[in-house]
Each structure stands twice: as structure tokens, then as C-alpha cells.
Amino acid sequence: MEEKVIVCDKLTKRFGYFIATNEISFEVNKGEIFGFLGANGAGKTTAMRMLCGLSAPTSGSATIAGYDVYSETEKIKRNIGYMSQKFSLYENLTVLENVEFFGGIYGLTDQEIKEKTEELASKLGLKSEMKKLVGSLPLGWKQKLSFSVAVLHEPKIVFLDEPTGGVDPVTRRQFWDLIYEAADRRITVFVTTHYMDEAEYCNRISIMVDGRIEVLDTPANLKKQFQANSMDEVFYQLARSAKRADS
């Protein structure tokens, strides 16, 4: 049996009369690359904030890395990595200073930080850039660096919110190589993206519509279910069905 590192049961978030996420239920396995998709306003970011321990649910239940989203949020934060849609490192610090700072925040020893720094610099080809300000780096390098720092402490789960927005296709492919490497190390990757070709790289995909999870399956099974040639077509059919239901 696969270890379940995310378990949600009817997880709901209300803001007054508005229901942002409506009884979402799903499980994610250890080492899985799980795509969490939906149009703007579908409830993705609200759901991710609850899973990261940043926002308390209104009702339902969830455990993240075995910890409860209501009562153990600090333990959740210690066992996850997070990379936001907007760049998440300090641009006025050098690459080295960022790595050392976040390594300390994650509780790594000085020796571990030194080893991780050397490994990161070699893997990303940044050995000659370590004393440069992060703000001076090209966007693609910034994104790859941000991801590498988010998994510096080998978290059980890393949450990625639109991580490749604005970067070129070649850099996006390189970024996904880093994701695959993390998954090979049994780090679970929970990723939102609006690039449907990236959705095809995930082991499984959920698609949210108006706060609910409308479908959840592998990319191959979803394309078969909707008789589609791509995830773009699947997403388009779901969006069209939602519009018909609203009219």
C-alpha cells in the first residue's frame, strides 16, 4: 500500500456566504507528482493555503504528512516546502546568503548547509554566481534556484503554485527535470499550473470547477474519458460544461 501523505475529506472554506472550496476530498501518495488545476477563481489557492497550514478550514478534515490541518499547523510547516507563484527568495541577498538563510530556517546544521550549497551550485551550474545578488539572475535561474531552496531540507511534500509562469519552454522543461528528481527522492510534489502541457507530466491530475473537484485521474485516463487528444481539450470541455450549467 502506498503511503498517503495528503488526505482530505470534505474540506471546505467559506468566506461569509461565499464557498471558496466546497467539500473537496482526495488523497496523494508519497513521491507522487499531483497536478491541482482549475481556472482563476476555482479555489486552488484557497485549498493550497489550507493544506500548507496557512488558513484554517471551515469544515471537513485533512492531514498533511500525518499532521492535522486544524491543530498541528506548525508541524505541517516544518515538513513541507513551498514555492509561490511570485518569486520566493530575497532578491537583495546573494545566492549564497539565500541558501544559508533558508537552510538555517529549515533547521539544517552548518555542515549540512555547506554540503547542500555545494550540491545546489553544482547541479544548477551556479558555482560562479553564488556571490551575485539573486535579483541580478535571469528569471529561469531564479525559478530553479527557488525550487532547489524549497526542497533544501528534503521535505515530505513541496507545494508549487504556478512555478513556471513567465519562463521560456526550455527552462520550463529543465524545471520539470528538477521536479522529477525530487519525486525520485520520494518527495511528493503538489503543483498548480495553467500550462496544460505540464499537466501531462503529472502522475495524476485533479481539476477544480467552482470550488469543487470535478475530475481526478491520470492524464491518460482523463483524455480517454473525454475522448480528447490533450489536456487542453479536457479542460475546455469541463469549462464549457460549467458555463452551460450556469446559464
TrEMBL record:
Region forming the signal peptide: none
Tell me which PROSITE patterns the record gives.
ABC_TRANSPORTER_2
| Subcellular locations according to the entry | Membrane
Q: What is the protein's major site of localization?
A: membrane
- Topology term for the membrane: Multi-pass membrane protein
Please list the residue ranges annotated as the ABC transporter domain.
6-235
Which Pfam families does the record associate with it?
ABC_tran
Q: SUPFAM superfamilies per the record?
A: P-loop containing nucleoside triphosphate hydrolases
A molecular function GO annotation:
ATP hydrolysis activity
InterPro entries noted in UniProt: AAA+_ATPase, ABC_transporter-like_ATP-bd, P-loop_NTPase
One GO cellular-component annotation of the UniProt record comes to: membrane
Going by the UniProt record, its keywords in alphabetical order are: ATP-binding, Membrane, Nucleotide-binding, Transmembrane, Transmembrane helix, Transport
Q: What is this protein called?
A: ABC-2 type transport system ATP-binding protein
Q: Identify the species of origin.
A: Dyadobacter psychrophilus
